[in-house]
Amino acid sequence: MLAIYKRELRAYFTGVIGYVFLVIYLAVAGVLFCYSTLFSMSADVTSYYSLMLIFSAIVLPLLTMKSFSEERKMKTEQLLMTSPVSITGMVMGKFLASYTVFAAAQLFTSLYFLFLIPYARLQFATLFGNMLAMLLVGLVFIAVGVFVSSLTENQLSAAIGTIAIILGFIGVGLLSSLLPTSYWLRYVLDTFSVLSRYQSFTNGYFEVSAVFYYLSIAALFIYLTVRVFDRRRYN
């Protein structure tokens, strides 16, 4: 797994994908930061992270669209599946490489809040809660992207499919928020919503159940990716 992880992480920066992602992510994050907090000198970071959540749903597929689709297109997939690395190790290596780049981008964007310190009193519990929520949601988004990438050799199709599934997760949450709290369908929709559990973190609260939810959804898509290659290996 470690060899795959290093290989994939290196590939992001020997090519252009890693640089393109970081430049786009940091630039848009800077614009959203100025719009939502800096210009108004507001210490409320929730609106910034809410906008970044939507933006991440669109840009994160840049990291994952080539994970396996490029291997299929370049006919190197068989080399991976016959290498002395387990299927799970192969999938986890690629997943963790993508997540490392995303987490690094999150670390860099968090430095923007240093500009607010002289002008506004930051609520660090809320700030850290929002940062943690973004990292957890990123786990799910990247796991979805790796799974979709394993299904096709077309990178554009992988990106579009990933965005569609992610927006589906977000759409379910938005639909749930429009329903009355006593309506039974809301509880069903909340089960599949990445937003319903996100709100607790934005208020500065840490919920173990929410962390478990995000880890479980990410693990599910990683498992599905492993099953795709298990089936492909024996077919």
> What is the number of helices?
12
| C-alpha Rg (nearest Å) | 19 Å
End-to-end Cα distance: 24 Å
- Poorly predicted runs are none
Beta-strand segment tally: 0
Give the rounded overall mean pLDDT: 83
Query: What's the assembly state of these chains?
Result: single chain
Which structural class is indicated by helix and strand composition?
mainly alpha
Largest sheet: none
Helix content: over 70%
Whole-number count of domains: 1
> Rough shape?
globular
Strand portion, in percent?
A: under 5%
| SSE succession | HHHHHHHHHHHH
Give a short synopsis of this structure.
The chain has 235 residues and is an all-alpha fold. The protein has helices at 2-14, 17-38, 46-59, 61-64, 69-73, 77-81, 87-110, 124-149, 155-178, 184-191, 198-202, 208-234.
Q: What does this molecule look like?
A:
The protein has 235 residues and is mostly helical. The protein has one domain. Helix content is 75%, strand content 0%. The protein has twelve helices and no strands. It has helices at residues 2-14, 17-38, 46-59, 61-64, 69-73, 77-81, 87-110, 124-149, 155-178, 184-191, 198-202, 208-234. Helix 9 (155-178) runs antiparallel to helix 10 (184-191). It is globular, with a radius of gyration of 19 Å. It starts with a helix and ends with a helix.
